[in-house]
UniProtKB/TrEMBL annotation:
The keyword Acetylation does not apply. This is Ferritin. Residues 2-147 form the Ferritin-like diiron domain. PROSITE patterns: FERRITIN_LIKE (PS50905).
Length: 178
């Protein structure tokens, strides 16, 4: 496959790094919420970090299945200095919007080369990004409405978020699920 679509493989390797960086950034957000006694928000972002790791490992599994040696990169810089929940959630939304652009570039690289298997693989991630951006946008709206009443945000997260059922259409994960 690497000979057939080198741009796609390069972008997929880069995306693995982006997913691991997103994982680490979500851990940093979760730790901030944990340190500020906001357990619902902490739990939400700990789960988000695991989801990003899972996405990276789906990409690793795809490369392995296509007989392309995966490269696991180091991660990028992670921010830890925040002052209020709205700031953390705004960063998470911007991160998800950036990932959406990256996934769109992967899809385009597959489509431009007629890489139907790569295109089909990326479709699930495009669907996932619609959900991720929407979820973060809603959470940001709730944070903005709640102002300094962080417990309203906690109530929303407890009531409206959590682990849903596994998506049976999700790509397989290297090393097993979660």
């Amino acid at each position: 496959m690497s000979v057939e679509n080198p741009k796609f493989v390069t972008l997929l390797h880069e995306q693995i790094g982006h997913e691991f960086t997103a994982m680490q950034q979500y851990v940093a957000l979760a730790v901030w919420f944990d340190a500020h006694d906001l357990p619902q928000l902490a739990g939400f972002f700990y789960r988000q970090s695991l989801e990003e790791r899972t996405h990276a490992m789906m990409m690793v599994r795809y490369l392995l299945d296509r007989d392309v040696p995966p490269h696991v990169p180091g991660i990028g810089e992670v921010r830890n200095d925040f002052s209020a929940p709205t700031e953390l959630v705004a960063l998470a939304l911007a991160q998800e919007q950036r990932v959406t652009t990256q996934i769109e570039a992967l899809f385009k690289a597959a489509r431009d080369r007629g890489d139907f298997l790569g295109e089909q693989f990326v479709l699930w991630f495009l669907k996932e990004q619609v959900e991720e951006v929407s979820s973060m946008q809603t959470l940001l709206t709730i944070c903005e409405r709640a102002g300094d009443d962080y417990f309203k945000i906690e109530d929303f997260v407890a009531r409206e978020t959590g682990d849903g059922p596994d998506d049976p259409s999700a790509p397989p994960v290297a090393g097993g699920s979660r």
